[in-house]
Amino acid sequence: MIRSPLMTVMVQAVRKAGRSLVRDFGEVENLQVSLKGPANFVSNADRKAERILQEELAKARPSFGFIMEESGEIDGADESHRWIIDPLDGTTNFLHGIPLFCVSLALARDGVPVAGVIYNPVTDELFIAEKGAGAFMNDRRIRVAARRSLADSVVCCGMPHMGRGDFGQFGREYAAVAPKVAGLRRTGSAALDLAWVAAGRFDAFWERGLSPWDMAAGIVLVREAGGYVCDLDGGDKMLAKGDIIVGNETVRRDLLALLPKA
């Protein structure tokens, strides 16, 4: 595949941040045995990866603004374009030595994500998509799964964190969906979940309480892989509302019909 100059910049940035994370991930096992654990170390790894991304992107596109998980918002001279960055999605997995985490980077134009990169540096799986150009994993074209029945589908979901989110609501949604599907999964990384829907590994995904950097890159990937994306009211306000549901047209529609009843 031929990458645009924009995508080349994005891929170089996430790969460089990914190399930093992999080096730090190698130290996590050594820190697990300490009483305090690796929490502070992981926070530093997160911030270091974000600095790498910010520096690389600012060098290539100095007028673009930023929305970042750790450092917040930074306005740019170009008010139409903003990078949306999650340097380490799946922090708890990283903290426990579980190799399910990623770097997530999106470019939004006038508030709409138009390009996205999600990279798991441990497995070296690189998911990329640009509006109108399709979605790819390691240069291979990917598409959402074609299953038409919830009963045949493996669905991924997000779960509220301790002290955050509505556990009661999630429990009702889980109870409504679980008997209708072939299986429910929860990985701990919303960005990877979205990438895996785009790649056809999961048939659908839903979660509440997300931030823009959790979703922006994955939204582009799913759409460019032929999937459908909406909020949990069926609208297009995912980034503003913080909830999302994705899948192919049929499975997403049937799942969306189940969730409000919970």
Automatic annotation (TrEMBL):
InterPro entries: IMPase (IPR033942), Inositol_monoP_metal-BS (IPR020583), Inositol_monophosphatase-like (IPR000760), Inositol_monophosphatase_CS (IPR020550), Inositol_monophosphatase_SuhB (IPR022337). It catalyses: a myo-inositol phosphate + H2O = myo-inositol + phosphate. PROSITE patterns: IMP_1, IMP_2. The keyword Oxidoreductase does not apply. Its cofactor is Mg(2+). Pfam families: Inositol_P. Its EC number is 3.1.3.25. Belongs to the inositol monophosphatase superfamily. This is Inositol-1-monophosphatase. The lineage of its organism: Bacteria, Pseudomonadati, Pseudomonadota, Alphaproteobacteria, Hyphomicrobiales.
